[in-house]
Structure formats: C-alpha cells, structure tokens
Design a protein that fits this description.
alpha+beta
Length: 428
C-alpha cells in the first residue's frame, strides 16, 4: 500500500487525493459526494439513489449509452453506489486511457440532463427494484428492524426509499437534490495508480477547477435519542427459512469504542469487511459459529459493523436450521453475549480475532481500485488518517476493552430484535 500521496484542496473547495502506485499499468478514479439517505427527509426518501441512476442517463457531451461503450472499448470498468452517508462514482482503466474517466466525472458533476422521459422510465426501474427486494426475506427483516431501531434519525429509511415517495417524487425534487449536493466543495476526488502526480494534477485542474463552488449543503441530522428498552418485532413473509436479526445501537466510526466493537465482532461472528471489494474470510472459529452452527442449531451466522458519520447499528444475523427454532438460537446467542460480558476473553482469542480482522482489512485494501476507494471513503465519515492508522489501533485493543464493549453495547435495552417467520409460500 506504499505510494506517493498528495492531498490538496482546489480553489472551488474540491478535495483531491492522488496516490502514485506503479505496480501495474492501471489507474482508478473516484468521485465521492457527501450525500446519501442520511440527507433525505420524509417525502423524498430514496432521492439520492435515484439521482445516482439519473446520472447514467447521459449529458449533452456524453449521451446515454455512449460512456458504457467508451469505457468498455478502453478495457475499463465503471460503476456507482449510494449508501447512508455518501454517493460515489468510479472508473478503473488502463493508465493510458484514464483521461476518459476524468472527463466523464467532471461532466457528470454539472451536466446531468434529468429529462422528464428519463425520470419517468427510471421511476419504473427503481420501483421494480424496490418491489423485487420486498420478495427477499432479509430485506423485509432488515427494513423492519431499521425502522424500529431509529425513531427520528434518517438512518431509519432504506437507501432505496419508501414506495409512496418513489411513486410521488417529481423531476424537480431530483434536480434540486443534484444541484444542492453535487458541488465541488461537497466532493472528494481520489485517484490511485500508474501516473505522474504533476501531470495528473494539471489535468484535474483543467477539468474541475472551473466548476463553481456551491452553497455549502447542510449536513446536520437529528440526533437519535438513547434507546431505553428492547424493541421486538416479527416479520412474516415468503420462503421456508427463519432468520433472527439482533441490531444494537453502535458508535460512529470516529468514536473510540468503534475499534473494540470491531474486535468483538471478529471474535463473536467473524470480521466485518469495511472495503467495497474485499474478499471474505472464514468465520468458522468465531464463538457464535461454534455455538450455533457446529451445534446444529443454525445454518449460518454473520455480523455487520459499518463505518458511518453518526451512530448506526451493529447487527448479528442468524439463519435458523430447519430442525431448530428462533427461541433456541436466541437463547444460545444471548448466552454467548453474557459470557463475553461476564469475563474478558482470553488474550490469545483476542489476538486471533484481531489477526483475522486485520487480514480481512488488509486483503481488501491491496488492489489499485480499493486503494483509490479508501482515499475517498475514509473522508466520508472521518479522514484518510483514520484509514492509515486503523490496523495499528485495532492491534492495540485489549481483552478488557472487548468486554467493556459487550457490556456497553450488547445490552437488551440497546437492541432491536427481529424474527422472520416464513409462511412456506413462494415469493410473489
């Protein structure tokens, strides 16, 4: 992960991160915007994701379909993603063709068309996507738990948005959102790969610096009140599999407790991958796998911890064995949590959990694409130094800190517990 790193801010407020890596003739180029479902209000939930879709519908310079053909012809890949706190667009291409990526994203920042016909057609696509998700048990369960866990914070809404909002939103809502948040002073441009910094920076200035800064968009969100009692719910739906989702309010990425909770996650359920393109590791040595899967009570277990601006959720998911029950699995899950709360885990077990979390983090940070990803991603919830010091800080977590994290966060009154009960029917 070595390379010459350059950080600067252009006159219009655009943050630029450049990292020279001459191991392969590739360059990965990302533009990140500080806008996601966290920036949405009732009535326009899903607008950030919909805007992302619209920015693949062409501009005067790059009509719809043309960028796909150009990127493919040059041997590159491109895509985009919207999440809670951010929206991002990237291209990874042979080094000699990267100018296309720079031109595409500079154009996308200002020239999205948002014509009425495309808005109407994309409404159909997104509603279909939403309705398809409603046939998925894990989506139904996750949406219900998320909505119950948060009462006022926008994290309570799924990124895709609520169906009534998707049916009623108009072109003006999308375009206003675009013009509010897609301004250079609300963006981070990150490039990693086989280039010379001086030449790359000169080209970035040519393409981006003339774009005017906009009014600084508001980034505040209502603070979620502390949860004082457990919330339980049951979701009924298609399929034959029972699931348990236990979601606990968790610290934001910049809080000191995020690191002990990351080690707890690795020890309890196997490490969560923070990278977009990271590979997975086996979790067969974690406590819940041994107690639930090896015991024949569950088919699988997983944990999920996300790096976010505001406090979000740490989630444990159990896939119940057909010959078992949600009650039996929940009893074992709670027993394993109590075991962590009652006594600090052995130092050797913590060392192994740290090693696994470090390995997953490192493996997912090696490629050119993921190195460029981290240049911008860390800036969405903290800063790049958060990334460069992560492994060192993770290794410093002690058994006592893991125990304290379990005592602090894995309390029933801090939990929203959802059970998915299948009705045995096929999806609609």
């Amino acid at each position: 992960m070595e390379g010459l790193l350059t950080r600067l801010t252009l006159a219009n407020g655009l943050s630029v991160f450049l990292k020279e890596i001459h191991t392969a003739p590739l360059i990965s180029h990302w533009v990140w915007y500080r806008v996601g479902s966290r920036n949405e209000t009732p009535g326009i939930t899903g607008v950030s994701h919909w805007v992302e879709h619209m920015l693949f519908k062409g501009s005067p310079q790059f009509p719809a379909g043309v960028p796909d053909r150009l990127v493919a012809r040059h041997g590159g890949v491109w895509n985009a993603s919207t999440y809670l706190d951010w929206t991002t667009y990237f291209e990874t291409m042979p080094a000699e063709t990267i100018d296309l990526a720079l031109r595409l994203e500079a154009d996308r920042m200002v020239s999205g068309l948002f014509n009425y016909k495309s808005v109407a057609s994309e409404r159909t696509v997104i509603i279909s996507e939403r309705q398809g998700s409603q046939n998925e048990p894990l989506f139904l369960l996750s949406e219900a738990v998320q909505a119950a866990a948060f009462t006022v914070h926008p994290y309570r809404h799924e990124v895709i948005g609520n169906l009534p909002d998707l049916q009623s939103m108009q072109r003006r809502h999308l375009y206003r959102h675009y013009r509010t948040y897609y301004v250079p002073n609300n963006a981070v441009l990150a490039v990693a790969g086989d280039f010379e910094t001086e030449a790359m920076l000169g080209r970035i200035r040519e393409l981006y610096e003339a774009i005017p800064a906009g009014a600084a968009p508001g980034q505040s969100a209502p603070a979620e009140p502390p949860q004082t009692s457990e919330r339980r719910l049951v979701v009924n739906g298609p399929g034959d599999t029972t699931y348990i989702q236990a979601s606990y309010h968790a610290p934001a990425a910049v809080e000191a407790d995020f690191l002990p909770l990351a080690v707890l996650d690795s020890l309890l359920a196997g490490p969560s991958g923070l990278n977009m393109f990271g590979s997975g590791l086996s979790n067969k040595t974690c406590r819940l796998y041994c107690a639930l899967v090896d015991a024949g009570l569950a088919v699988g277990v997983a944990g999920s911890l996300s790096a976010t601006i505001d406090p979000y959720l740490y989630t444990l998911l159990v896939t119940v064995h057909p010959q078992s029950s949600a009650d039996a699995c929940l009893a074992v899950l709670e027993a394993e949590i109590r075991r962590l709360q009652d006594a600090p885990p052995p130092a050797a077990e913590v060392a192994r959990a740290v090693k696994q979390a470090r390995a997953l983090f490192a493996y997912g940070s090696e490629s050119i694409t993921n190195q460029a990803f981290w240049l911008g991603f860390a800036e969405m919830f903290a800063d790049y130094d958060w990334f460069t010091t992560y492994l060192e800080r993770l290794a410093a977590v002690t058994p006592a800190e893991v125990q304290r994290a379990a005592q602090t966060y894995l309390r029933p009154q801090n939990r929203t517990l959802g059970v998915y009960q299948p009705n045995g029917q096929p999806p609609a």
